[in-house]
Amino acid sequence: xxxxxxxxxxxxxxxxxxxxxxxxxxxxxxxxxxxxxxxxxxxxxxxxxxxxxxxxxxxxxxxxxxxxxxxxxxxxxxxxxxxxxxxxxxxxxxxxxxxxxxxxxxxxxxxxxxxxxxxxxxxxxxxxxxxxxxxxxxxxxxxxxxxxxxxxxxxxxxxxxxxxxxxxxxxxxxxxxxxxxxxxxxxxxxxxxxxxxxxxxxxxxxxxxxxxxx
Length: 214
Known about the structure:
Layout lengths: L1 H8 L2 E9 L2 E12 L3 H9 L1 H7 L3 E3 L6 E4 L3 E9 L3 E5 L1 E2 L10 E9 L5 E10 L5 H4 L2 H18 L7 H6 L1 H20 L4 H15 L5
Pfam families: AHSA1
Family: Belongs to the AHA1 family.
Organism: Actinokineospora spheciospongiae
């Protein structure tokens, strides 16, 4: 459990503002360091053979302008691709999401460190009118990205992680999700969120990702 919580603490979280083709957006931002060279990290986030090891199986035309789809229903278009430093994609979920283009984008920025390490930054921008935000706040996507970056860290370190569902339902995974939801609550407060709204969002996010066992 200790190494999982250390992974959680390794990331800096922030909530900010941005813009999208659809208009004003809020951003969920994660920044952390990986003990891996930049080319290795880039390959891990762009190679289908490696993506399925830590994220999900992916299909599609994985080049600039191409469209992709993950096994969980997330899909989009590759908007920018500048190896090995920058990747930006549209990020939609569910069949109805295609009716609302320009409402969600994910950008990953990689910077080489001084000792063969890599600074990893992920920015997920979602339209202000995104319906889940009033209920869940930044934790709606933030906890999911925390889980993904945990898996990526273990993968880059040569380790392994249980299947997503198995890990998320394990005591270790549930505790990770609870603490991640609380951490996103702190980021929401720092961005000016109302305390009562933040507390309600953290509670809703925790119940979604780590519901009480039945």
